Amino acid sequence: MDLYLKDTADMEIYKPGSDLASEAKLFLYQNKLLKIFSKNTDIFNKRYIIEQLLKNKKYINISGLVLPEEKVFLKSYFSGYSMPFYSNCENISDILFTPKYSMAFKLFILKEVLKIILQVEQIPKLKDNFFLGDIYGNNFIWDKDACVVRAVDMDGIYINGSKAQVAFHLGLNSPFVSMQKYPKDQSNGRIIFNHNTSIACFGIMLINTFAGTFIPYWENSHFWAYLNYLATCGIPNEVLEHLASIYLEKEPNDFYPELLDQINPNKDYHLTRIL
Q1: Are both 26 and 130 inside the same structural domain?
Q2: Strands (E), the chain
Q3: Parallel, antiparallel or unpaired: strands 3-5 and 70-74
Q4: Pair 73, 30 in one domain
Q5: What is the pLDDT of residues 228-272, one digit of tens each?
Q6: What is this structure's pTM?
Q7: pLDDT tens-digit profile of 235-247?
Q8: Domain containing residue 26
Q9: Close Cβ partners of 73 (under 8 Å, ≥ 6 residues apart)
């Protein structure tokens, strides 16, 4: 079923001033969250993605995904979609960069994020045609009631031939643009989401967490200097190899969630120690 509305004038805006403001606005409506796209959004691609998710929902048996429930039409025009609303939650970026949370808890959160990323890629019906794409902290939440990590903003994914979209850690100014293993969409120059981009984005999340600060794009010299520092801190070689593969043409090995259990959560890996 689709949801038809006249307008959003009487709806409460959810988290005004968020980083979604240029692309969309979130509204609370009858215990649901509505994401209404702005006029400068590629609305046809967004509609295709939402329709594909709804069409394939029966195959996507992943509890950590906040999937769309219905398309939303304003004045008969497709404008967005509805999704379940989780009121008692926290943004994963806030957890990863807030000192009050222990490194052990942050590594647990990242392990759950990686599980979701890999589960998405292993759905038989959508094999090689379904990737989360824009993987960074703001697109995940910690559901405090259920004590689970959930992936949100599902309109930013890749599914069944949808157009390449903007990904925060894969932007046009990043070092990834010149690398062959991150293929580009010739129509808009953006990087096409695949397994390599998933591992790269997750690796940047992990290394930012170690550093204790948010760096969207690591310059080559800083990246390698910091990786060398992490080696002196005792980060396991297998983890370092995965992080190194982000900035190398080599294909990454399987980055399995249990690998994060090898990291000592009691050491100080902060970037300020070397830069």
Answers
A1: no
A2: 3-5, 12-13, 24-29, 32-37, 70-74, 77-84, 89-91, 130-131, 140-143, 148-151, 158-159
A3: parallel
A4: yes
A5: 999 999 999 999 999 999 899 888 777 889 999 999 999 989 876
A6: 0.93
A7: 999 999 999 998 9
A8: 3-84
A9: 2, 3, 4, 5, 79
